[in-house]
Amino acid sequence: MECVVQGIIETKHVEALEVLLQGLSGVPKEHVRVHELCLKSGPNLGVVPSEVRLLCDLTQPTPSWTIRHVGGAMRGAGAEQISVLVRTIVESKASKNVLHYFYTIGYKLDHELLKVGFAFRFHRGAQITVTVTSANKMQRLHATDDVVAVANGIQLVEITAPAAADNYNDVVSAVTAFCEYLAPLLHLSKPGHSTGTVATAAAAAASLMSSGGGKTV
Amino acid sequence: MPPVKWLMHWHPSPGATLNSQILTEACSCAEALGGTKDGRWKTSIFFYRPITRDGSAGQLSPDVPRELLGVALHERPGLYFSIVRAQHIVLQADAAFPQVMEKLQSYRARVSLNFEGIQYQMGDFCLRIGKCVPNNSETLRGILMEFDSMFNIFSANNRKVEYYPLSSIEKSRAIMEDFFEVWQETVAKKSLPGRFIHVETNFSEYHLSDQYSFQHTALQYAACLQPLMAAVSARG
After folding, report:
1. Helix axes A14-25, A201-211, angle to 10 degrees
2. Per-residue pLDDT averaged across B145-174, rounded?
3. What value does the CA radius of gyration of chain A take, rounded to a whole number of Å?
4. Do A18 and A27 touch, CB atoms closer than 8 A?
5. CATH number for the domain including B59?
6. ipTM confidence
7. Chain B: residue whose CA lies nearest to A99
8. Domain parsing of chain A, residue ranges
9. Out of A43, A48, A98, whose CB is closest to B61?
10. Domain range holding B52?
11. CA-based, 20 to 30 A from A158: which of A16, A109, B60, B116?
């Protein structure tokens, strides 16, 4: 399972966010360029309709493929009270014929996106990954070199951390604590509960850029 | 890169029955050839069937395969293979793949066959002999063996400089045939009611190259199912 929160930020403040994340994490950023294909089960296949994501990492000289199943969110009164979503995730690496494989076994392409941006991976109470990406639509099927932004001027920020049944409370605390550092620049909340951009972002970004990066935190 | 492997299954003579005595005799042949026991091995094949919302396969699109095979190889437990025989596709994934399938609830693994037995080291060759049994019973469904080879490269002054697996199927054919011939002669001396047959798999149908990979091994296991099932039906 994993803990996850999401938020959005205006592209003009992304550089300041990068400076802040660099200062907080102390690790170099990684480039992200992922072709994400969302497939859905065909008519009548499966107990219930199902959805699977195929992620092709395009930053490698030889693109690598991952199958990703995002499970349902944890429910219950406890889950309602925390500001982080806890959900099951199952991932498997796969050979490059994985898209053909899923088409063959009865899955159909629902939509595809190209996500471009950067990520920071570091340990801070939990193994935290922050990804900042712009989502792009393909003009033609699978044409990752011919894309247009889904939302001009807006980028998606996602914070995830792996968790297990016996430690997710600690991981939720670590993620929540980390989100507070980013609060001047963006609101982070459970996926699907976006609270928009924050009014203080411009001032916080200006402050970060003038201070030379993260040292004030 | 794994070495080229040949997989063989025991084909009983007409009227003969399959029994564990054949397995014992095959193991004694390995020892007669100088093989030393080097642990046990187990490979499994899982049979997945599609699940439909109303429980009737007739409601599915005719293009949806009625069977997927999952293969877990003993030599690479971190990998998992899914084979769609009808459409000639072999997918290589990692050991979490069965969990993905379980979450999707579109195909379910209903039964599995285990291939398990003893591994022998025999000079440059590694030989594995074992039985095929369903996961839910002890009924003997077949006897198999597989072997692969490391190959020595000698420099001009005849000093061994490299030791690497044979990875080209074509280039290794002669050496594999030679070993299999020696093996067959040894087994023949036992006058057993049947013989081992090499499972010929058409790898090019699956778009696999001459460079041997774990996908080739998974396909050889899938290919041996048909003769094994045929032998079971012939025995009634």
Report:
1. 60
2. 72
3. 18
4. no
5. 2.40.320
6. 0.91
7. B91
8. 2-211
9. A43
10. 5-235
11. A109
